[in-house]
Each structure stands twice: as structure tokens, then as C-alpha cells.
């Protein structure tokens, strides 16, 4: 992180937090995987807001890193939400049998 700008460090913190909230990496305090999709959505929304508010004021590297971080979190969020829907559907089907 030494060569990262302060902005990139902020994005990296939020990006890592998003991964944790998606249940992709363990919570550093507990060491446990904890999926919190509502919080992940808020983190993604915060990064989207940062993108809008900083438009035209970032270096190319900062813009690229921010856009990469947002896209990776959104893709994984989508798949996690779909997995949750699938689990609920399977549970409902099993309970009706």
C-alpha cells in the first residue's frame, strides 16, 4: 500500500470491507466468515457515490482502481444475492414436499 495514493487506500479499505461483507474473506476481528449482504450493498453504494463525487478529479490509476473495485464487488454481490434466492426457493420447495 506504500505506493497507493490516499484515495486509493480509502478505496482499498472499502473494497476489502465489501469482500468481508460478501462472506468472501474472514472478519479480521473474529476470524469467521460472516455474510452481510445489506452492508455489502451499502459499501458498493458508497463507492459509487465516491465515483460520482470525484469524477474528473482523479488520476487514471485512481479511476481505474475505483472502477475495478466497484465492478468486482457488484459482480460478486449479484452472485451472492442469486445464491440466497436459490437457497430460499430450495427451502420452500422442500418444506412443501
Please supply descriptive tags for the structure shown above:
97 residues, mainly alpha, 3 helices, 0% strand
Description:
72% of the residues lie in helices and 0% in strands. 15% of the residues are buried. With 97 residues, it is an all-alpha fold. It is elongated, with a radius of gyration of 16 Å. Helix 1 packs parallel to helix 3 and helix 2 (37-53) packs antiparallel against helix 3 (60-96). The chain has helices at 6-21, 37-53, 60-96. It has one domain. The termini are far apart. It has three helices and no strands.
The largest sheet is: none
What structural class results from the helix and strand content? mainly alpha
Beta strands, count? 0
**Shape, please?**
elongated
Fraction of helical residues: over 70%
Number of helices: 3
Amino- and carboxy-terminal Cα gap: 53 Å
Provide the domain count. Answer: 1
Proportion in β-strands: under 5%
User: Could you give the order of the helices and strands?
Assistant: HHH
- Rounded mean pLDDT is 93
- Rounded to the nearest angstrom, the radius of gyration is 16 Å
Amino acid at each position: 500500500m506504500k505506493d497507493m495514493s490516499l484515495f486509493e487506500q480509502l478505496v482499498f479499505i472499502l473494497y476489502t470491507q465489501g469482500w468481508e461483507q460478501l462472506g468472501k474473506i474472514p472478519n479480521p476481528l473474529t476470524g469467521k466468515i460472516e455474510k452481510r449482504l445489506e452492508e455489502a450493498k451499502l459499501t458498493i453504494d458508497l463507492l459509487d457515490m465516491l465515483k460520482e463525487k470525484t469524477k474528473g478529479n482523479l488520476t487514471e490509476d485512481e479511476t481505474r482502481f475505483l472502477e475495478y473495485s466497484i465492478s468486482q464487488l457488484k459482480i460478486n454481490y449479484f452472485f451472492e444475492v442469486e445464491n440466497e434466492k436459490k437457497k430460499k426457493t430450495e427451502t420452500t420447495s422442500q418444506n412443501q414436499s
